[in-house]
Every structure is written in C-alpha cells, then in structure tokens.
Automatic annotation (TrEMBL), chain A:
Topological type in the membrane: Peripheral membrane protein
Domain ABC transporter: 6-233
GO annotation, cellular component aspect: plasma membrane
Entry-linked Gene3D superfamilies: P-loop containing nucleotide triphosphate hydrolases
Pfam families: ABC_tran (PF00005)
Keyword Hydrolase included in the entry's annotation: no
Organism encoding this protein: Muricoccus roseus
GO MF, one annotated term: ATP binding
Protein name: Amino acid ABC transporter ATP-binding protein, PAAT family (TC 3.A.1.3.-)
Keywords: ATP-binding, Cell membrane, Membrane, Nucleotide-binding, Transport
Region entry Disordered, spans: 243-309
Subcellular location: Cell membrane
From TrEMBL, chain B:
Domain of life: Bacteria
GO MF: transmembrane transporter activity
A single Gene Ontology CC term: ATP-binding cassette (ABC) transporter complex
Topology relative to the membrane: Multi-pass membrane protein
The protein, known as: Polar amino acid transport system permease protein
Subcellular location: Cell inner membrane; Cell membrane
Amino acid sequence: MTTPFLLAEKLERRVGNTQILAGIDLSVQKGEVVGLIGPSGSGKSSLLRCIAGLDPLTGGRVLVEGRVPQPGDGLIGMVFQQFNLWPHLTAGENVALALRLVRRMSRAEAAERARAMLDRVGLAKFADRRPAQLSGGQQQRVAIARTLAMEPRLILFDEPTASLDPELTTEVLDVIRGLAETGMTMLVVSHEMGFVASVASRAVFLDHGRVLVDGPARAVFRDAEEPRLRRFLSTYLQRVAWAPDPEPPATQPATTMSLLGAAPAEPGSFPLLGGEAASPPPPARFSLLDAATNPPGEGQPVTAPKPGA
Amino acid sequence: MTVVTETLWAVARGLPLTIGIWLASVATGLLVGVLVACLRHFGPALLNVLLATLVEIVRGVPFVVQAFLLYYGGPFIGLDLTPVVAGWLALSIYAAAYFSEVFRGGFLAIPPGHVEAARLLGLKTPQTITRILLPEMALSVLPSLANLAVILVKETAILSIITVPELTFTVSGVGSATFAFAQTMAALALSYWLLVELTAYAARRLERGIARATLGTA
C-alpha cells in the first residue's frame, strides 16, 4: 500500500478534564473525499481544526504527504461554517489579499486570478460586492474561492452549509461536488447526510472523540450495523418521514420505518440512496429529499415537473 | 488694553500650543496604544501581564499627579525635560494607556475565525493586524477613540500647572492680572467647548469616510 496522502495517528486532544479526541487514526488517499459525520460534540470539527493546526494536539501526529503541516504553509485550506470572510474587503479583495501578500502577486495579477476563482464558483459578477451584500451561500462560495486561489493540497470543510437555508445549501454543495469531480482531496464535516452519501467516497462516523465506523460511504449509510450509527441515522430518517405526503401512500411509512425496526433494511428503502439501488425507486413523495429524482445539489423546486419522470 | 482684548490676545497666544500638544499626544498615544494592544493580544503571556500592570498604574493615578511626577521627579532620574516636552510625554503616556484598552476591545470583538482564515492562507501576524484587524475594527472603535480625544483636549488644561504656556496658562494669567476671573474663565470655557465641538465634527466626518471605505456605504 502506498503511503497515505494524509495520515493522522492516535490524535488526542484534551482540554481540562474533557477528552475531545480520544485516539483517532485516519488515513486518506489522494483524491479521496471523506465525509465526517456524527453527533454534535463528537469531535468532528475538532478533528479538522487539529489537522489544520488551529488547535493543538495533546497526543499523536498529523502528516500530509509525509510532512507535518503548519498553518499557512499552503498544504491545507479550510472552509468554515461561519465563512469568515473579511467584511471590509470586497469579494474580489478577499480572494486577492493572500495572493498579493503571500504569493507576492502584483495587484493586477492577483485581481485577475481572484476573478478567475470567483468565476469558478459562479460569482464572477460579484467581485466588487462586500460580504454583507451577498447571500450566505454566495459568501460561502467566495470563501471557497479564497481557499482555492492558494492551491491547497487538501481542503477541510467544517460544516460549510450548517448556517444556510436549504436552497443556499444546494448552491454551496454544488460547488463542493464540482471540486470532488476535479480530484481534490477533501474532508467534509457535514450534517447533510444525502450530500455525504452521494459525494463522499468514504464516510467516517465519530462519537465521543473516537472513530466508530469508517468505510465506503454507501456501505456506511446502507448497511449501518453499528448501533450508535443506526441510532444517529434513524433520527435523521424520522425527520424525512415527517415530511408531508403529496399523495396518501399505502406502504410508505412502513418502508421508511423498516430501517428503524428490527428487520434488516432493504437497500432501496433508504430514500437518499434510492437512486443507486437496483430496484426501481419508489415514487417520489418528497422529491427534494429523494436522491432518485433529484440528486442533492440540483435544487429543483418540489413542484417542478421532472423531465421524463 | 481692555480685559476683552487682553483675553482674546491670551487665547490667540495659548491656543496654538494647546492644539499642538493635544494633536501630538493623540498621535503618539494612538501609535503606542495600538502597539501595546497588539503586544498584549498577540505577544507572550508574560508581556501581557507586564503591560497590563503598566496600564493599570497609568489609569490609577490622577493625570495632575503624573504630570507633576514627570516634570518635577524627572530630574531625579536624569530626565530633565522642558515643560512642553514633559507635558507632551505625560499626556501621551496617559492617552496610550486608555487608547490601548480601546484597541484591545476592538481585537476581542473580532471573530477568531477571521484571524484563523488569514493564518491558514499564510498571512503573517503583522499583515493580519494591518490589513484585516485594524481596518475591520476601525468603524467600531472610532466613537471610543473620539471620546478619548475629546477628554484629552480638556486634560491639556492641567499642563498649565507645570508651566506649559498653553490656553489655560495664558488666559488665567490675564484673570490674575486684571481680577476679571469670571470673564476670563468664561472665555476659556468657550474656547475649549469650541475645540471639542470641532473635534466631534471631525470625528463624524471621519466616521462617514471609514464607513465608505470599509463597508462600501455612504
């Protein structure tokens, strides 16, 4: 086996009497997209912050391409839940600042590259707007452009859509999905299970600072056997089950509940993975949450007629 | 000469020095204040403790006493200053202590993520301070800074006690000579009040300018 691109060995972080990370081992190959899921306080964000070097470790080590990453060495880029754009600079200046100060580009050169990066996230027209004049989703896309401009080898996403409404979430996830397709190595902490299931090649489930499940995303979601993971996913599915029914279905609740009950789940019963199942997907009762008719990221309104559906 | 012309003449003589010492002290105080705040916020913990103690001492002693100590006590430690230099230095130290606290508050008010983002992108701490933190906090610290500047205008009056020939010194001299205390003090009060109003006006203009530059709004 080749040496992993990112290697995290026995990561430990303790603050006072609280064990935040309790010995986490993680190795990521180049081009992998790893989704980190788990309840709040499980250590997902802490793991990212320790890998980035923003929080100190109390044990273990992180290697990226065999090197110990330091904040600002250009190896790792990070996208935050709160965007963290600098409010006094325009979108273009936010992207260009590090290019000028760190890459020593001329003002014109940096501005041109900033524009190209904003174009990549679909915001070329908004270069002269200040963060306050942009929607949350646009701000997060600017933050992604700012990170991309420095050409990091690894990008960490710390709940990038947690403070966005569903529509804005979609536009941000589309950008991340596009990045995944370019072969960028990424770690994504997210509560968007559908997104993790469809974009991540691997899913890691954390609880109490430990890795409980680590495997191919599809397997982790479909054949969740670990009891804590099942409990975690079931609360999510319950929310899906509460969605209003456009037509009275006879078997729908039973199908959805089967994952929660003792009976082993059929592959097709997971609404977010329905598209990948061999059996034809059940009729969309809530198309926004149904990956078969509307993969996360497309952002079709519920009432929009699907072509060919 | 009548009391009125004599008073006006005294104002004309004293005002330039008052304004000069005040502006110089505000400038020095701002510079040192920013520096102290940066060192306390980003420097080693020990330095923070040391600077915090100094700030506490300066804030804990009345300005009259500080001015006296510096001017009359200075020669004992080889610091033989002219009244004007002693006055400028004393007021600058006094201003720096208060300004540093305003800037420290500004640093604390900025979300840590803004600094973390800069750090991960490779910006050095001085670059982060000058390019991101100071411009970002400029608008929110300005009212407090202007407030202090206004207070400092009036503190310059205390320098008359260490024989700095500023406004209070020249005008109260007229009062002592002519016994027209009420008239001269009224003229003095009016002069300081006008100076403060002018400062407040300048601060409002500056506020609009900073808002335009940092928020893109009028």
